[in-house]
Amino acid sequence: MTIDTQKPAFDLDYAITDFIAGTTRDSVYIYQAIEDTMVDLASEVPGGRVLDVACGTGKVAMRIAERGCFTLGAEASMEMIGLGRYVQPESRALMVRSIAEELPFPDDSFDRVICQGSLDHFVDGHAFMREAARITKPNGRVVIALANFESVSCRLGRRIDRFRWRIGRPRPSWRRYWQTPEDHNVRGDMPYIRSLGGDALVLDRCTGISMLWLLFGYGTFLDRLPEGVARTVWNGLDRLARHRPQHSDMVISVWRKPGAPAWPAR
Ligand SMILES: C[S@@+](CC[C@H](N)C(=O)[O-])C[C@H]1O[C@@H](n2cnc3c(N)ncnc32)[C@H](O)[C@@H]1O
Description:
Blueprint: H1 25-42, E1 49-53, H2 59-66, E2 70-75, H3 78-87, E3 94-97, E4 110-116, H4 125-135, E5 136-147, H5 152-166, H6 190-195, E6 202-209, H7 218-224, H8 227-243, E7 250-256
This protein binds S-adenosylmethionine (SAM).
């Protein structure tokens, strides 16, 4: 892996304003679906111990805690931890400041270690995966949600933009959605995701979420439809994405330790 030495080693100052969530229906639906899937996968073991790494404001960790799991969030930015505490002071989820590549927990201590939309921000995603394997119980699972920059949407978007630029349309000064963001250290796609387990973890299952997210005109098209119709279109593409993670907008991969029984056995 090449590390960009111009960048600080770790991003300790991530702020909520660094996160730009879309407001069109395709964005609203995908964020909800990712979060719901992560919460379901994290709480598969009733009353289990769950760690959400790079949890941001801890929104997901707090939902998992509501399901009766002992839940911890690990996060590098004090601002994100503070904001989460401010928004939901009553939550039973605990949050600790720590770096994903060196987690301050003993071996075999969690049933589920999850990481949503953050691994591509890490300096060393593989180091995090080794840490996740170390602190996961022998029959536990590591669950990773990562944006796919080789989705149908990204591939089509890239082609459409190149065509527009070739015919003389102006290049926008802002980042196009199919380009890797500044604060990402890697470009998420299936080959990268498959490489994540190394010797420490085995891929147990993989699913995709949503298709065509952010593609030119798709979000505004859904916005013009009545809610029920828009939901049906989105659900149809999402069902396809679940079986074709390599083409989907977001990939959720579930990992087990070598020697642990494969899914669905738990
Ligand atoms: C895009 S946000 C996602 C937050 C949350 N998981 C969610 O889905 O809302 C990425 C988060 O990763 C955190 N982060 C970046 N590098 C980190 C590292 N090496 N260790 C721990 N957290 C890190 C940032 O502070 C930020 O809160």
